[in-house]
Design brief:
This protein is an alpha+beta fold and about 120 residues long. The protein is about 45% helix and about 10% strand. A four-stranded mixed β-sheet has the order 2-1-3-4.
């Protein structure tokens, strides 16, 4: 299966990540995160697969995150509530988001992505 990359076209980090994949010759399925928001079921699966804390899936530097004061609200929310919130708006999801057969990488860190595409 080709890895899936959820991205936001205006995001410079997303552009950098997609360029990096292309330079590596990696075929991937691109998915615009704002137009094709991940579902709660997808997010739950990816979160469990990643082994990362759920907070890593939030775009903590995004305007929406700040407007909603999520920094203060998330600790009191259940996992289900947090996943439902992420599924409600793609702009809350950390991007780019790489989903491969073995792992899930929220955000672009070359070393993590390198490992994800070579496993």
């Amino acid at each position: 299966m080709k890895p899936i990359v959820l991205y936001y076209a205006k995001c410079s980090t997303c552009q950098k990540a997609l360029k990096w994949l292309e330079e590596k010759g990696v075929e991937y399925e691109g998915r615009p995160i704002k137009e094709e928001n991940p579902t709660a079921a997808e997010l739950k699966t990816w979160y469990e697969k990643s082994g990362l804390p759920l907070k890593r899936f939030f775009n903590t530097s995004g305007l929406l995150y700040k407007e909603m004061a999520l920094k203060d609200k998330l600790p009191d929310m259940s996992e289900e509530e947090q996943i439902a919130l992420l599924a409600a708006d793609g702009m809350l999801v950390k991007r780019p988001l790489l989903v491969s057969d073995q792992t899930v990488c929220p955000g672009f860190k070359e070393s993590e992505w390198e490992k994800a595409i070579t496993e």
